[in-house]
Every structure is written in structure tokens, then in C-alpha cells.
Design a protein that fits this description.
By secondary structure, this protein is an alpha+beta fold. It has one domain: Electron Transport, Fmn-binding Protein, Chain A (Pnp Oxidase, Chain A). The protein has five helices and seven strands, in the order H-H-E-E-E-H-E-E-H-H-E-E. A six-stranded antiparallel β-barrel has the order 1-2-3-6-5-4. Strand 6 and strand 7 form a beta hairpin. Helix 4 packs across helix 5. The longest helix has 18 residues. It is globular. The chain starts with a helix and ends with a strand.
């Protein structure tokens, strides 16, 4: 992996929304067509995750990744790179709580108190946030964390 890409993936709790904003291209679970969306990513230790605020139903991107875990992770701020990856959907409640407790705290530190986003409640995030661990696929098909 290029060093500039590695640095772009090395976000921490002080990283801005812009630093975290990427696109992903998944394969539509029904259509089989590519679907590209904008999303933010998080990092915990050496692992990269896709997540978001809780919602009333599963996100299309999460449904797509459940059906077809291979996708493209597109860096677009700073270095530009299209990174082949796979996703592992996190469903275990204890693992979700361990990870989302950190992400909710980061979200609350960054959120504008006068903005539209509510305070992130950990129990709500554990119950309803999408969560997937990203593994990057190297050129020879070998998988590696960021």
C-alpha cells in the first residue's frame, strides 16, 4: 500500500469529517449493478470500519455488503485511491458495544451542539447503527488491515 494512502487511513479521534469522508462502491444485492455512495469511516486500533448513525431500517450499502462483501473503498480527499476491500458485518452485541462506544464518543466530540444531529446515545448506536469491518485486499489477493 502506498505511504500516502496508509497515512490517509491512519485517522484518529481528532480527524475531521473531511478526513473521514470517502465513497464506497458496492454491488447491488438485487440488481448486481455497482452502487456508489458517500460515507465516513472510523478507525479503532489497526482496524478500519464503516458505520453511521442509527436508522429505522438497514442501510442499502450494508445489505449490499451482506450479500456481496467485496467492494471498493475510494479515498477522495488528499490522496485519491480506489482500494479493493472486503467487509465483515459486525452483529455480535458485545463486539458492537465495544466498538460503537468509541465511535459514539468521537461523534459527540465532533458534533455541533447547535447542529441538526442529536447526541449519540451508545445504546441506540448498538441497537441500530450499521457496522462493518474493512479488510483491504492487496494486489496479489492477500488481505490486510490498514
Amino acid at each position: 500500500m502506498r505511504e500516502d494512502v496508509r497515512r490517509a487511513l491512519a485517522i484518529d479521534s481528532s480527524s475531521t469529517i473531511r478526513d473521514r469522508t470517502i465513497d464506497i462502491t458496492t454491488t447491488g444485492h438485487r440488481s448486481g449493478e455497482p452502487r456508489r455512495i458517500e460515507i465516513v469511516f472510523y478507525r479503532l486500533g489497526d482496524e478500519v470500519y464503516l458505520s453511521g448513525i442509527p436508522g429505522p431500517r438497514p442501510r442499502s450499502w450494508l445489505v449490499n455488503l451482506t450479500a456481496q462483501p467485496r467492494f471498493t473503498f475510494h479515498l477522495k480527499h488528499g490522496p485519491v485511491a480506489d482500494l479493493p476491500a472486503t467487509a465483515a458485518i459486525i452483529t455480535d452485541p458485545a463486539e458492537r458495544r465495544r466498538i460503537l462506544t468509541v465511535f459514539a464518543a468521537e461523534f459527540n466530540r465532533r458534533r455541533d451542539p447547535d447542529g441538526a444531529w442529536p447526541v449519540a446515545a451508545v445504546d441506540d448506536w448498538v441497537a441500530g447503527s450499521p457496522l462493518a469491518r474493512v479488510t483491504f485486499v492487496e494486489g496479489d489477493g492477500e488481505q490486510s488491515p490498514a
